[in-house]
Design goal:
The protein has helices at residues 29-40, 53-65, 85-99, 125-149, 165-168, 174-193, 212-215, 220-229, 238-249, and strands spanning 20-24, 44-49, 75-79, 105-108, 157-161, 200-206, 260-263. By secondary structure, the chain is an alpha/beta fold. The chain has one domain (20-263): Rossmann fold. A seven-stranded parallel sheet has the order 3-2-1-4-5-6-7, sandwiched between helices. Strand 1 (20-24), helix 1 (29-40) and strand 2 (44-49) form a beta-alpha-beta unit. Helix 4 (125-149) runs parallel beside helix 6 (174-193). The longest helix has 25 residues, at 125-149. The termini are far apart. Bound molecules: NADP nicotinamide-adenine-dinucleotide phosphate (NAP). The site of NADP nicotinamide-adenine-dinucleotide phosphate has 32 residues, from helix 1, strand 2, helix 4 and helix 7. Residues 24-31, 48-52, 81-83, 109-113, 134, 138, 161, 163, 206, 208-209, 211-214 line the site of NADP nicotinamide-adenine-dinucleotide phosphate. It holds the Pfam family adh_short_C2. GO terms for molecular function: oxidoreductase activity, acting on CH-OH group of donors. Keywords: Oxidoreductase. Belongs to the short-chain dehydrogenases/reductases (SDR) family.
Length: 268
């Protein structure tokens, strides 16, 4: 046995080692799973939430307690409404102040869907306003702040959660799908405008994923219909989305830029 093999192997550096990742809407659902996954890749996480402070705090504790270095802070929580420009600015300010570096990664997972699934003819104006305010204006404000403040020179990543419903075009999803379609168009132009920064911008567009948003307002029959419509015969789960987001967040994804990646088991 040579001398080197008798020593424990030094831990290899993780792909996002100590990079700061802001994940909006990560108190629950897909955003939460993304936060956990990016932390497992070595990132320091800013957990953003709107109202569920307790759930966000529990997640931060979970990530911090699973850190191999118990003295180093790996996750913090920041309440911010993504549709408020001052809040979005604060999100980035806090991330920089606490972790002492500009963020490398912005994942925008915050989103809303009206659980009544109204037809366009029956959509109240307030539902239109709220949907576009959170899903579209929120994505715009996150893109704008990220485009100005993410790390330059390599590794900067903007990842936006949109929806396969932009392709699925089901009745009852008109306003929601339109709010996400605008984001998909915006990201394609943003990627070009970021020329020279080393920052890439992409959308992940999931199909049905078993979260509160998905189950809210759906009958058992509608859920079964979605399962039957999927070639893989099941609902998506958050674990189906996070590896793709993880890949996009790393340096390995650099050549994927300005794209919309549908992740839906073949549903659309
Ligand atoms: N689940 C699906 O089937 C599906 C399919 C396609 C696309 N998507 C998209 O994937 C993303 C995540 O969906 P999900 O299923 O995880 O939803 P979810 O379970 O309903 O979670 C929504 C998250 O967004 C946060 N949020 C809502 N409004 C916000 C605001 N104004 N500012 C900041 N945060 C806000 C919530 O925070 P609080 O906990 O504080 O309320 C929560 O963390 C959304 O953009 C959604 O449109 C979902």
């Amino acid at each position: 046995m040579d001398a080197s093999s008798s020593h424990p192997t030094a831990p290899s550096s993780l792909p996002l080692q100590d990079r700061v990742a802001i994940v909006t809407g990560s108190s629950r659902g897909i955003g939460k799973a993304i936060a956990v996954h990016l932390a497992s890749l070595g990132a320091k996480i800013v957990i953003n939430y709107s109202t569920n402070g307790d759930q966000a705090e529990l997640l931060a504790q979970e990530i911090n307690s699973s850190s191999p270095h118990s003295d180093s802070l790996r996750a913090i929580t920041v309440q911010a409404n993504v549709s408020d420009p001052t809040h979005v600015k604060t999100l980035f300010d806090v991330a920089e102040r606490v972790f002492g570096a500009p963020a490398h990664v912005l994942v925008n997972s915050a989103g809303v869907l009206d659980p009544k699934y109204p037809s366009i003819a029956n959509t109240p104006l307030e539902v239109f306003d709220l949907t576009f305010s959170v899903n579209t204006k929120g994505a715009f404000l996150c893109c704008k702040e990220a485009a100005n403040r993410l790390k330059r020179g390599g590794g900067g990543r903007i990842i936006l959660l949109t929806s396969s419903m932009v392709g699925g075009l089901k009745p009852g999803f008109g306003i929601y799908a339109a709010s996400k379609a605008a984001v998909e168009t915006m990201v394609k132009i943003l990627a070009k405008e970021l020329k020279g920064t080393g920052i890439t911008a992409n959308c992940i567009a999931p199909g049905p994923i078993a979260t509160e948003m998905y189950f809210s307002g759906k009958t058992e029959e509608q859920i079964q219909k979605n399962i039957e419509e999927c070639p893989l015969g099941r609902l998506g789960e958050t674990k189906d989305i996070v590896p793709i987001v993880g890949f996009l967040a790393t340096d390995a994804s650099e050549w994927v830029n300005g794209q919309v990646i549908r992740v839906n088991g073949g549903y659309v």
